[in-house]
């Protein structure tokens, strides 16, 4: 058996050209080699294959039976190798059939994916998107293993191993139902603390958040009477009760059922970013997806 480690790719390219030209001189011209170099290659190939491969004939050189058996497989193998190492063709979203997998919360589904969805569907109708629940402790591993292509998460909690593109900065506002009697204007700090509040606790069951930390710094507290795991349910609660909540402004700015006012307490906002792994960083299709989503959000 032939040991592949003894084979130089240049030797196979030379053999393919010799089998096409049946002439050392013409093969050398096509390969931009000197004639002696091609002859040396042929001698080496004869040694490796233990066969003359090309024999002198009346009209140049004629291939042996072994060489004839190599002709098509060798041509196909070289063509496949050339295709594999050639620069990738520009990504054409109109012809794409990818299935994208993105990790998001219901907040980022609404503020990032929803604004981008119509444009993605129009530009790349043959693609699909699977949105999976964001699991912050598993972000890095999921991205590394290819379980997710993109992650939408706050910048401060982003794993250092992932690439990051900031999308926007978010601030908090006070929201309640349209016509809420206590939200006709910005409430005082005392009125704010007396209201009954809802809080989103992604981990479940929490009654303390960034607002409570800000109030604690000035020796105050509020009444948190309901804790829910998702923003979408919270919006329905607000619209049908007199409960209020501190919510990201982008989430509720177009909701006609809610009344939005500034809160009397300054709650630090956050930066939302798009994250991805090095394995897809230079992939043209993935670059297009990232650019499209970023443009839609901005």
TrEMBL record:
Presence of keyword Transcription: yes
Record organism: Cupriavidus metallidurans (strain ATCC 43123 / DSM 2839 / NBRC 102507 / CH34)
Pfam families, per the entry: HTH_1, LysR_substrate
Superkingdom of this protein's organism: Bacteria
Protein name in UniProt: Transcriptional regulator, LysR family
GO terms of molecular function: DNA binding; DNA-binding transcription factor activity
Keywords assigned by UniProt, alphabetized: DNA-binding, Plasmid, Transcription, Transcription regulation
Positions in coiled-coil regions: none
Family label: Belongs to the LysR transcriptional regulatory family.
Domain HTH lysR-type: 7-64
């Amino acid at each position: 058996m032939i040991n592949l480690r003894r084979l130089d790719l240049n030797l196979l390219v030379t053999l393919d050209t010799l089998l096409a030209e049946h002439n050392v001189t013409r093969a050398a011209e096509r390969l931009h080699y000197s004639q002696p170099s091609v002859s040396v290659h042929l001698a080496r190939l004869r040694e490796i294959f233990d066969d003359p491969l090309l024999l002198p004939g009346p009209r140049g050189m004629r291939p042996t039976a072994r060489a004839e058996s190599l002709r098509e497989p060798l041509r196909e193998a070289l063509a496949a190798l050339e295709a594999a190492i050639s620069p990738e063709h520009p990504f054409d979203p109109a012809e794409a059939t990818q299935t994208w997998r993105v990790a998001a919360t219901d907040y980022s589904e609404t503020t990032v994916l929803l604004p981008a969805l119509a444009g993605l569907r129009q530009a790349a109708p043959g693609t699909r998107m699977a949105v999976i629940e964001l699991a912050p402790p598993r972000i890095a591993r999921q991205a590394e293993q290819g379980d997710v292509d993109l992650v939408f998460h706050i910048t401060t909690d982003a794993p250092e191993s992932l690439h990051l593109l900031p999308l926007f900065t978010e601030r908090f506002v006070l929201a309640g139902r349209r016509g809420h009697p206590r939200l006709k204007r910005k409430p005082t700090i005392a009125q704010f603390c007396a209201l009954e509040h809802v809080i989103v606790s992604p981990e479940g069951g929490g009654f303390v958040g960034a607002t409570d930390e800000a109030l604690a710094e000035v020796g105050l507290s509020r009444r948190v009477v309901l804790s829910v795991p998702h923003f979408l349910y919270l919006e329905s609660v607000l619209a049908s009760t007199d409960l209020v909540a501190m919510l990201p402004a982008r989430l509720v700015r177009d909701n006609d059922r809610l009344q939005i006012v500034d809160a009397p307490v300054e709650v630090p906002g956050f930066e939302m970013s798009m994250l991805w792994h090095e394995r897809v960083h230079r992939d043209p299709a993935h670059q297009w997806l990232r650019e499209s989503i970023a443009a839609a959000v901005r």
